[in-house]
C-alpha cells in the first residue's frame, strides 16, 4: 500500500484584534450577493461551485471573489486538536471534509479555494508556509493560495479573512477583506512560504530576514523571475517539482525546527517517489515480459502444429495458401515477441529473465526459419516431386516456455 508523506498542517489563528487596512467591498456588492445566494444543491462539490460561478460571473476577479466570499461565510474554523487530526488526508479528503461538514482548518479552506479556482479556469496554487503577526512567529504551519488574475499575482488567505480566535480560544467570525487579493509585497509582512518561489517576489525574503522583520526588497540581490520558475514548475513532473522545491527551501535558510521539518518531509516524499519509480519500472518490465512470453508460447504452438502436419506429409491435403498461413502465424508471433522483449528497459531484478527469454526466442526463430525454408522449397516443386522431401530427417517438436 503506498505510503504518503505528510507535514502536520495544524493551523493556529493568532489571538488578536489588530485591524488591517480594509479593502472596499463596494465594487463587489453584486458579486457578494450572488455568492451568498447560491443554491444549496450547487455547494456539495467543487464542480458544482465552479459551474455556478462560471454561469453567473464573467470576469476572473469576480469569479475569484465569489468563491472566496462563499468560503469565508460558510466555513467555520476548527481549533486544531492533535488527537483528532488525520495526518493521512489527501487533497480530496480535505476538500470533501470541508464541503460536507462546513468546518475545517487552513488547509481545508485553501484546498477548496484552490480546487474551485482551477476548475473555473483560474490559475491557482495551494501554498504552505508559516506566519508572523505583531512580531510573534507562529510555530505551526499555515496554508493559503496564490492566484494569477489578469496576468498579475495575488495572495488569498480565506482562513485569516474569515475571522480570528479570541483570548478564550474561541473562533469569532469576522470578515477581513485585507486577505482578499493581497499583493505579494503586502503579504510578506506576515506570510512566508516554505518555498520562496511562492513569495511572488523578484528579490525573495530569506527566513532569517523574515524573522528579523527585514522585508524590504533589495535590488542588490540576484534577480529571481518567479513567473519563469512557475511556468517551469507547471511542466515538471512531481518528482522534479519536489527536487526543485527542496533546493529552494534549503537555500532560503533552515532557521527554525518547522522549516527543517518541512524540508525533511519533502525529502521523504522524494525518496518515496523514487522508490515508486523503481517499482513501476520493474512492474512495467514484468508486464511486457509476460506479454512477450505469451507471444513466444503462441509461436511455439503454431510451429508445432506445422511440424506435426509436416510429419504427416501434410495430410489430410490442404491448399498451399493454408500451409503458408500456418508458418506465417508462427513467424508473426515470434516477431511480436521480439519487439516486446526488446522494448523493455531491464532492471537488476529482471535482467536475467529477459536475457533467458530472448535466448529462447532466438532459438525458436531459427527453427521457424528452417521450416520457412523447407516450405518455400516445397511450394516450388510439382506435386509428384514434393513427396520426396518428406523422407529426410523429420523435425522434432519445440517445447513451450514455462
Provide structural commentary.
The chain has 14 helices and nine strands. The chain is α+β, with helices and mostly antiparallel strands and 402 residues long. Among the domains are: 168 residues, C8orf32 fold, CATH 3.10.620; 113 residues. Helix 3 packs antiparallel against helix 5 and helix 11 runs antiparallel to helix 12. The protein is elongated and about 105 Å long. It starts with 28 loop residues before the first helix and ends in a 16-residue tail after the last helix. The relative contact order is 0.08. The N terminus is likely disordered.
Tell me the CATH topology of the domain at 26-193: C8orf32 fold
The major beta sheet can be summarized as: 5 strands, antiparallel
Please state the overall shape, judged from the principal axes of the Cα atoms.
elongated
Give the averaged pLDDT, no decimals. 89
Helical amount: 40-55%
Write down the CATH class of the domain at 26-193: Alpha Beta
- Approximate strand percentage: 5-15%
The DSSP helix count reads 14
The count of β-strands is: 9
Distance between the termini: 30 Å
